[in-house]
Input
Amino acid sequence: MPNIKQAGKRARQALVRRVRNRSTKSEIATARRVFVDGIESKDKAKALKEFSAFCSILDKSVKRGIVKKNAADRRKARASAALAKMA
Output
């Protein structure tokens, strides 16, 4: 139990943020999995659509400070390379 009122508020804020961050990271992982499934199915149109969704989720998470910019850029580059390799 926090001794100071501010510490209690910080603990509550941290809890809310942790739940939000985990949710977003889970969403990123799901989008990546769907993208990989699209590549494995050899369907270029589906893979391109899923790539776009994956990049969008990454960009939004960077904007919110959940994922670092370079990490998101690296993931997008690797996904893009996999998409190019498919063609």
The radius of gyration is 17 Å. Residues 5-86 form a domain with the Methane Monooxygenase Hydroxylase; Chain G, domain 1 fold (CATH 1.20.58.110).
